[in-house]
Design brief:
The complex is a heterodimer of chains A (91) and B (107). Chain A is mostly helical and 91 residues long. Chain A is 78% helix and 0% strand. The longest helix of chain A is centred in the middle third of the chain and has 25 residues. By secondary structure, chain B is mainly alpha-helical. Chain B has one domain. The chains are: A mainly alpha (91), B mainly alpha (107). Chains A and B meet through helix 1, helix 2 and helix 3 of A and helix 1, helix 2 and helix 3 of B.
Amino acid sequence: MFSAAAIGIVITMSLALMRALLGPTTFDRILALNMVGTKTTLLIAVVGFLTDRPDFMDIALIYALMNFIGVIAVLRFTKYGEFISEGGTDE
Amino acid sequence: MEATLDILSWILIVVGSVFSVIGGIGLLRMPDFYARLHAAGITDTLGAWMLMVGVLLQAESWLVAVKLVLIVIFLFFTSPTATHALARAALASGLKPWTKNPENPER
């Protein structure tokens, strides 16, 4: 049962990776990246159940947080061209 | 009771996987960025939720169950936020939504 879920998640991840490779705009690539990150979280949790190792849940939890921060950081970078803006360039 | 939970989690996991694959196909085949955003939404919310709740029903200990619930809550708050930020950044950068009739976008 868990292997069926893992196969479905891996298929989805490969479709998203294809979009990340094809994607005409940068935002398409970031969207695909975000989706691959979410699927990785799910995949880690499912593989933790599949191999009967409950400590994988901690890794999945950390990955869910890091994925969000990573997407926001990349978005800031594409908007301003740098990670930290100097002196309130916001709007 | 045990069999009922097993069947329920089977159904949730299979339906969640199917939704997630549908979203992946949509991400690949939709015509422009905003439509792809819509296709990606289904995997981040409904697919992820169903998969996680299906896995949650199989959890043996309370600690694992609480961690799974935390993952679901984080996904529930962070993925719409990321999608919103992405759509706003794309609109601010001047990306036009795709229409059937480019001369007259109202139709």
